[in-house]
């Protein structure tokens, strides 16, 4: 090879050798770096996206949990508020009912108090009236005893049958009075099984229980029409028993039977008058000195009146209230008397207070 060839070929041969390696090495290094940076950035972007999704998911879960807790708290608060309101409502309803009952009770007490005061005044006025009537009856009795001769002259002798001058002494427990005893038992059964609430005067008009029939039967057949029986604990019940006795005797002996009532206070005599009117259907005019029923506050006045009735051929029936602690000896001489014996504890309780009609 000659020098000319070397001169012609060196520039072309040597130029690519001097330029290509130097220019190619920097471009490949920059591309690799850029690729690595791009990959790193892409990886960071992916990681950030994953973190964002995780945060969004966590946020949603937290919001859901908070909403559930808040809803539960609201429900519990609402339920508690409703329960408190229901309890207050029930409490108010109970308070209103108590106030209404108290108002009704106060009104009832006012009515009862007014009625009780009115009844007490009426009883006291009626008792005072009965007391005046009894006082006038005693005065009439004393006056009649002081003026017996003129009174006897005015009475027509022919108005009485001759046999009535001898007093009848009924002995219901003896054999001679079997017919009367049969009638008594028949009337007792009638009063007990077929009560006549609209019967005529002197007929028993009230319900007659077996306990009442037992008391009346014992008085007729065991005591022989004169003696004491145990009180039934109520003046009204005692008056019912006495009314049955009066009705039976009236059925047997008619108007000759005169009932003489003995009680130690005008109030109790008023109870007897009202009770006999209710049980026997008698009127106010049947009470009086010369009537079928006479009320007495003193046993001496009663004994004097009974003695006069016996002398006149009448049949006095003496009825003694259970307030009397003992039977006066002047009463024991008469053929028919019925005393109601109170229990000792009742007698002690009644000794300090009035016992009005029950």
How is the topology of this model organized?
Blueprint: H1 3-146, H2 148-154, H3 178-193, H4 210-222, E1 226-230, H5 235-253, E2 257-262, H6 266-280, E3 293-296, H7 299-311, E4 315-320, E5 337-341, H8 344-350
Parallel strand pairs: 1-5, 2-3, 2-4, 4-5
Helix pairs in contact: 1-6, 3-4, 4-5, 5-6
Helices and strands, in order, run as HHHHEHEHEHEEH
Low-confidence stretches: 1-19, 147-165, 348-358
Evaluate the radius of gyration. 60 Å
* Beta strands, count: 5
CATH top level assignment of the largest domain: Alpha Beta
Strand order of the largest sheet: 1-5-4-2-3
Any idea what the shape is? rod-shaped
User: What is the CATH third-level topology name of the largest domain?
Assistant: Rossmann fold
Percentage beta strand: 5-15%
Strand count, sense and barrel status of the largest sheet are: 5 strands, parallel
Per DSSP, the total helix count is 8
- The CATH architecture of the largest domain comes to 3-Layer(aba) Sandwich
Number of domains: 2
Overall average residue pLDDT: 79
Q: Measure the end-to-end span.
A: 172 Å
Q: Structural class, please? A: alpha/beta
Helical fraction equals: 55-70%
